[in-house]
Specification:
Blueprint lengths: L4 H10 L10 H25 L8 H5 L4 H24 L14 H17 L5 H9 L2 H19 L16
Helix pairs in contact: 1-2, 2-4, 5-6
Length: 172
């Protein structure tokens, strides 16, 4: 029996504590679609409640209030990690591959240290200094992108049964 959109989303929230087991591609992608739709709806509501401020200051433009999407993101974090772990296990890989999300932390910290040191060595930051500061974070972005692509590929893999060598699949 095929899982419906509502059934898939309900299944993810019911099993939000389960990192073991399997999640079908249908369940996983319906939940991803639901997450995207929730984000679009909440962003629309936020733009109505807190209209964007027209300013030339980039920092002020970035720091627009987004409490609804922030709260939703935090509430959806654990169910998203759980369903992704189960989806990866359904394709025959270990759910421990999710720890790759921690990989960009080291270059991020190194970039922060580099930027702070670089900004302390200059008297007045100019556009060249800011461009150099952004360059410190390029490795972090590349690693994060690579991890995301790798995990996406794992989620796209077809399901494997126990007979096909998937030790995470339930016994038939």
């Amino acid at each position: 029996m095929k899982m419906s959109f509502v059934g898939a989303v309900k299944s993810v929230f019911v099993n939000f504590k389960k990192f073991r087991g399997i999640a079908t591609r249908r369940e996983y992608w319906f939940f991803v679609l639901a997450t995207i739709l929730i984000g679009i709806v909440l962003s629309t509501i936020e733009s109505i409640i807190w209209p964007p401020i027209e300013t030339a200051d980039l920092i002020e433009a970035i720091n627009q209030p987004t409490p609804l999407t922030t709260i939703a993101g935090l509430l959806l974090l654990i169910p998203t990690l759980a369903v992704t772990s189960r989806r990866i296990q359904d394709s025959g890989w270990s759910g421990k591959w999710l720890f790759l999300y921690l990989l960009p932390i080291v270059p991020l910290l190194m970039g922060i240290v580099g930027v702070v040191g670089y900004l302390q060595s200059t008297s007045a930051p100019e556009i060249e200094v800011l461009a150099t500061s952004v360059a410190y974070f390029v490795p972090t972005l590349l690693i994060a992108f690579g991890v995301q692509v790798f995990l996406l590929i794992l989620c796209l893999l077809p399901s494997k049964s126990r007979e096909q060598g998937n030790k995470y699949a339930p016994e038939a």
